[in-house]
Amino acid sequence: MQPLLSRFLANRVSDALEANQAIALLGPRQCGKSTLARMVLKAYPESVVLDMERPSDRAALEEAEAFFDANSEHLICLDEVQRVPELFPVLRVVIDKHAGNGQFLLLGSASRDLIEKASESLAGRIAYLELTPFLWEEAACSEVGFTDFWVRGGFPRSLLAGSAQASMDWRQEFVRSFLERDLLQLKPRLLPERARRLWMMVAHCHGRILNKSQLAGSLDVDVHTVGNYLDILEAAFMIRRLPAFHSNLRKRQIKSPKIYVRDSGILHALLGIEDYNALLSHPMRGFSWEGLVVDHILARIHPLAQVSFYRTAKGAEVDLVVEHAGETVAIEMKASAAPKVERGFWSVLNDIQPDRAYVVSPVERRYSLKGLVEVVSLEEIIEEGLAEGWLR
User: Fold this and answer.
1) Residues 191 and 268 both lie in one domain
2) What is the pTM of this model?
């Protein structure tokens, strides 16, 4: 029997329901949104749950306003709500009519579609939370060790699969299903095979500067088409674009974003990395570690914090810069247990003058470099960020 792992977002969802008329819980397919919703709904025993992918549940909303009015005393949970954008004007009317908090819990797998449709109708009435696949802090109580977690990623069925092969099989099927089913629900005109090729290219560019012209040339399409496909992959939480740091420093800085596949397990499936031994010898290992740490930090980033990376035209770089409450934190990622930082890293610290600087590596105990930089583990950088307030 698979263990029931806790999610740090659970309390935040409950608190948000108490404080807002509607909540949208967003995240990729099969990351655990429905499971988390069931946990939260235990406090609302008379809640009503409808899945918008189930024909019978969609039929129940043919007279949506009447249905919502009839159940106005109960919390209503709508799963895969991006499938029914026509509901949002009705939701606005019902929410305003009944006025109280905790009326709707909306679950969605397409951030952009859901946010755009909701923002047109529900501005000031809805709060958004994003659920990622499992983070290590949530998975650490399972029987899966950290190296397996890194290889498998955080999607529940991949993480908790009975074997490495079963995990890889699930992820490969997830990729196939997303391309052949979910992608076409988001944008019917997109070509699954083209999206697959682009996704594979992004995997090989993971952690590097995005070059849309290069991708367009490889796909034999124009840059605008590449941008459309990237937008959809990002809206479905499959990839992430990290913006470049902008400042008034008198140095030529890279302005294009970095690009990442958002889950390490999906990245490894796209790259054909089957186990930790294969990862250890793979040239993408360092970039994989970087993406893993970025995922964990951005999953808990304070909503008012600004995140970016810094890189000059000469190649001096820091992987992540966090700006919050007037302070700047510089974070470098190194997959080695004995990390060595390049001269360019120190040059960047001199440029941006951060208040604190870290190197995040799979180390067993923290230590300092030159008395200026703390070398810490993944767990410790999360603890530091929570203590300092730029994570929450």
Assistant:
1) yes
2) 0.94
pLDDT one-digit tens code per residue, 133-163: 999 999 988 889 999 999 999 999 999 999 9
Residue written as token pair 């189930």 = 54
Tokens of 342: 């390049």
The answer to whether residues 7 and 19 touch, using CB atoms and an 8 Å cutoff, is no
The amino acid at residue 13 is V
In a domain, 62, yes or no: yes
Q: For the segment 263-317, what is each residue's pLDDT rounded down to a tens digit?
A: 999 999 999 999 999 999 999 999 999 999 999 999 999 999 999 999 998 889 9
β-pair partners for 244? 309
Q: Among 106, 130, 154, identify where a domain stops.
A: 130
User: What's 87's domain CATH number?
Assistant: 3.40.50.300
Q: Is residue 313 part of a domain?
A: yes
Give CA–CA dist 169/161, Å, rounded. 10
Return the ∠ at Cα 116 (arms to 135 and 306), rounded to 5°: 50
> What is the extent of the structural domain holding 382?
300-392
